[in-house]
Known about the structure:
By secondary structure, the protein is mostly helical.
Amino acid sequence: MLTSSRYHLANLIAAEFLSYVLYISVLVLFAARLFKWYRSNKSTVVVLLYGVSAVILALTGSVAMVEDYLNMAAKEPLITPTQPIIFPTIEPGTFVFFLSDIYHYSDLVSTILVWSTTVLLLS
């Protein structure tokens, strides 16, 4: 695979799945620790907001993982440099369109929440 100019789609899916699972696992563990810390020291809301941000980021990662898998499932099983790059079209009203909306809104909410929490922390 490293010396050839082609690769199997199954390898790409496996690598991406592993990456997403590790990313989501770390965020869930991080959120659990933050919530535990918040319960022991309720004086700061910043810790709670960072925990909520981590949960929303984990949700965003989960949605992205499913959406990426659905997009890659439509590709050829063997990827070569001569294949054209095709971006999938997302038809309104489909499940992928719904996932795309969830991804964009949850990403927006988590970004705003992290920024707002950091402003609270610094003030």
